[in-house]
Amino acid sequence: MRVLFAVFPALAHTAPVIPLAWALRNAGHEVRVATHPDMVRPVTDAGLAAVPVGGSADLAQLADFGRNPALRDHLEGSLAVDPEHRLDWGATWYRMTRVFAGLRPMLEELTGIAVRWRPDLVLWDPFCLPAAVAARLSGAAHARLLWGQDNVAWLRQRSQRYTAQAPSGGWPDPLEEVMQQLLEPYGLPYEEELLLGQWTIDPMPPGMRLPASVRYEPMRWVPHDGGVQVPDWLHTRPARPRVCAVLGTAGRGRTAPPDGRLSAAELFASVAGLDVELFVSHHPLNAEGLVPPDRVRLLDRMPLGQVLPQCSAVIHHGGEAEFSAAAVHGVPQLIVPTPFWGEETAADYVVRRGAGLALDRAECGREPLRASLAALLRDPVFRERAAVLREELAAVPGPAQLVPVLEELTSRHQRI
Fold first, then answer.
1. 289 and 377: one domain?
2. CA 25 to chain centroid
3. Are 207 and 84 members of one domain?
4. Is residue 128 assigned to a domain?
5. Hey, which end of the chain has fewer CB within 10 Å, N or C?
6. CATH code (residue 155)
């Protein structure tokens, strides 16, 4: 069958697509990945066929968010969902619909591609509603491919419950305007699957899933680091515990955390006196002029799939890629969550499972950081619980095991 992926223009959204795309390719299916021209290179570097779409200036601004930290700072926390804590869900849902609207420039091109190429299945990023419309017009089956927790479904169904309880006309759902702009030119009626897919592929651990009435197909997260050259020092047996710190730019282009409380200098000071070897991902903006002490190695790029198997602990901001890679490799985690999407949920989940610790950014000075890291390294229970989590995730179907499921669902939902 022919499978078209539609991806939001950011590296953090592109990397999770690659393992499933290759699983489909290896099973004999044709695969194409539609994305912004600025994100074509990561797709083609992975050996996949890329289809550039949405080259307009409007969409280029969205693509810039994946590269320019200054543009990201004002979005801090704006799309985060954590039902366990207080949440202004209405404002969050409004901001979410503005992201949907920002992808509208992809609609005409995606529709043209789908109508001409006639994919059997379209797998789309939760932000890429134009891909669902294109699938509907071409008759393809279609599903969302998540890269983190399902904030969209949770917020949508929270909005629906509120609308049902509110007085008539008391809650103008901001989604209506977005969907009208997408559907009216093609004379299509609104269907819930155009927002939530005919089903949803979820790479997050089932225990992190938000309550939502959606059909989920679980898929084990497979870390994708891109093409990397394995350094010689990774072939050596560690003389002391190795710790990985993903400190530099987060997957969405922001420093992590953006308020600077977890700086490289404080991190170096916090491990002083601990008998560890520290790997730190850094960015020129926050490592300029900094000379690392002994047993600290600065990396321009952190190939988590290569580094984590040798690590005794990992420090990160709660991003999906870092959390999932550590969970898959059974590494205890110290999370200093930077709320933007599901970072606080990841931190809560790790603590609840006993596979790590979490620190609030306001408390993340060198002494709390040193004490937490020392506890992770000293107490074998953290590694034991992380190993249990790893084994549980190993039982979740991987991308190759999901392919027959996708074939069956496609035959059932495809409009021929």
1. yes
2. 22
3. yes
4. yes
5. C
6. 3.40.50.2000
The pLDDT assigned to 294 comes to 75
Q: Do 17 and 64 reside in the same domain of the chain?
A: yes
pTM of the model: 0.89
CA 134 to CA 33: how far, in whole Å?
A: 14
One domain, residues 177 and 304? no
Q: Is residue 390 part of a domain?
A: yes
- Examine residue 16 and state whether it is found in any structural domain, yes or no: yes
Which residues pair with residue 4 across a beta bridge?
A: 32, 122
Q: Give pLDDT tens digits for 372-407.
A: 999 999 999 999 999 999 999 999 999 999 999 999
Domain residues for 340? Answer: 232-394
Task: Please give the tally of structural domains in the chain.
Answer: 2
52 shares its domain with 112: yes
pLDDT tens digits, 145-177: 999 999 999 999 989 888 887 776 666 789 999
Treating both helix axes as pointing N-terminal to C-terminal, what angle do 57-64 and 89-102 enclose, rounded to 10 degrees? 130
Pairing, β 141-145 against β 242-246:
unpaired
Residue 186 sits in the same domain as residue 142: yes
If asked whether residues 192 and 257 sit together in one domain, one would say no
Tokens in use for 236?
């050596």
* Closest C-alpha among 267, 266, 261 to residue 280: 267
Residue 314 contacts residue 267 (beta carbons within 8 Å): no
| Omega before residue 126 within 30° of 0, cis | no
Apex 289 CA angle, 288 and 292, nearest 5: 100
Residues 213 and 262 in one domain: no
Interior/surface letters 230-245, b for 16+ CB within 10 angstroms, e for the rest: eeeeeeeeeeebbbbb
> In whole angstroms, what is the distance from residue 389 CA to residue 353 CA?
8
pLDDT tens-place string over residues 64-89: 555 544 444 444 447 888 777 657 88
Reported as a pLDDT band with limits 50, 70 and 90, residue 215 is very high
Q: Which residue stretches of 166-263 are H helix?
A: 175-183, 193-196
* Burial of residue 408 (number of CB atoms within 10 Å: 0-12, 13-18, 19+): exposed
Compute the distance between CA of residue 26 and CA of residue 246 in angstroms, rounded to an integer. 32
pLDDT tens figures, 333-364: 999 988 888 898 999 999 999 999 999 877 77
d(CA 80, CA 209): 14
Assigned domain for 227 exists: no
- C-alpha angle 109/112/115, rounded to 5°? 150
